[in-house]
Design a protein that fits this description.
- The protein has one domain (about 1-145): 2-Layer Sandwich (HIT family, subunit A), CATH 3.30.428.10.
- Helices cover about 35% and strands about 20% of the residues.
- It has five helices and seven strands; from the N terminus they run H-H-E-E-E-E-H-E-E-H-E-H.
- The chain has helices spanning about 1-5, 15-20, 65-85, 120-125, 135-145; strands spanning about 30, 35-40, 45, 50-55, 90-95, 110-115, 130.
- A hairpin with a 3-residue loop joins strand 1 (about 30) and strand 2.
- The radius of gyration is 14 Å and the shape is globular.
Length: about 150
Amino acid sequence: MMTELGRWFGENAPCWVCAVVDGSARAYAVLETSEVLVLVSPLSLNPGHTLVVPRRHVRNLYTLPEELAGPVLSAASRVARAAKLAFGADGVTLRQHNEAAGGQEVFHFHLHVVPRFRGDLERFNASPKLIRFEQQQAVAERLRSALDSV
């Protein structure tokens, strides 16, 4: 699975997010609006790690239209509250990378929403762990259930 996921990384790779939007790549959506999707991150730092992405292709923060900034942050806020409820998170980190020098590996704007837990600094600073589709589905289901309560 890592080699399959690896083909979506890099500046010249096909866009994984666009492939998810058009149905040619698999991902688990937690929240969907007409403008954004919230997807379970296949490379997880902590339980409940999600990616907020615009449905239309936007390379990075530099090209993010102002009219999408609000919906992106609104979705991030909702899923952060859901993660706190669903996973008992003590906090949340929002992370966003731009261009290769800034750590961007998937060249479609995405805002990471990472639930945080007391004492998780070592795990948070480690490389993300690839999680199986079954695990992604379980995370999505927990977050979707919690979204109904936030």
